Amino acid sequence: MDHRRGRGRNVKSRPETEAEYGQQTNGPPALQNTGGPSGGKGENAVTKVRIMPGPCGNVTNVEAQLMEHKGRRRLVTVKIESRCAAITDMAAAVGHEFNAMEICLRRPGQGPFFEYAQQHFPVHVGCPAINGIIKCIEAEAGLALKKNPVIEFVEDGS
Fold first, then answer.
1. Alpha-carbon distances of 72 from 100, 126, 141, 142, rounded to whole Å
2. Where are the beta strands (DSSP E) in 34-157?
3. pTM for the whole thing?
4. What is the Cα–Cα distance from 158 to 156, expressed in whole angstroms?
5. Which of 48, 52, 40, 38 is nearest to 82 (CA)?
6. Would 42 be classed as within a structural domain?
7. Bridge partners, 81 (sequence order)
8. Strand-pair partners of 62
9. Which CATH number belongs to the domain containing residue 104 in this structure?
10. How far is CA 151 from CA 51, 53, 111, 124, 126, in A?
11. Does the structure show a pLDDT above 70 at 136?
């Protein structure tokens, strides 16, 4: 299967706003402060993010849950659902349990998600999905504040 945009599938319309993404996916809000050590609501709380990549329309939903926190070990279970076949394949290949310290506290481009992508992803370095997955893990493990990162195109004179 070719993972490149428009190849081998019918793409009707691309969502332009966060509200349109929500209508197409019926997913969770963009970022919910519902889990992790810095905002948990009970033992089974999770951190959820929706990654809206832009023109491809391949929304990725991520849920992370802190399972164990002992010293430098912060075991997090991650669930990834995506319209993107490359992201779905990556999620199946790299597994679903990670030590957040080993995933999040690295140099950019390192770790199992980036290593998989370097070998198997179509050429598209600007896709924010991997960074969004890592941001979800990071927030759930208490390694970052739960604030929405934003990339915004700005017109001249704005």
1. 9, 31, 11, 12
2. 47-51, 60-70, 73-82, 97-99
3. 0.73
4. 6
5. 52
6. yes
7. 61
8. 49, 80
9. 3.90.1010
10. 12, 10, 23, 16, 11
11. yes
